[in-house]
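Dear support,

I submitted the protein below through the web form. The confirmation email said the job was done, but the results page showed an empty box. After a refresh the structure appeared. I'm attaching both so you can tell me whether what I see now is the final result or a partial one.
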Amino acid sequence: MKQPIATFSALAEPNRLRIVELLLNGPLTVGEVGERLGLRQPQASKHLKQLLESGLVEMRPDANRRHYSLKQEPFRELDGWLEHYRSMWEERLDNLDVYLTKLQAANSGKAAGTTEIQEDDHDGQHDDEG
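What the results page shows now:
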């Protein structure tokens, strides 16, 4: 990943992350972003500029409007960077699953033994009463 710090810094700000989520559905103008997020146009422009400078979005001018869309490459790079951690956590979670399955089996075996003892005691009580 070329600039993970820039990517994470850009996405760390909640409004910029919300903008990225909006742009998943396709290009939007500054006005559309502002309207959907309840931001004034200067605020939306500022956030879009930072996303543009970090390389996460691209801008296409169309007359007096600017259409912003996500660039795929930075997100592919981010996914590749996360893959190392994803596989590490999957392995750890698989190991945890194996451990919990063994623990559950051991506990259910103990519980079955306890149930038999209780049933024997219960039967014995009937014998003493009767």
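Response: this is the final, complete result; the empty box was a page-load delay. The mean pLDDT is 85.
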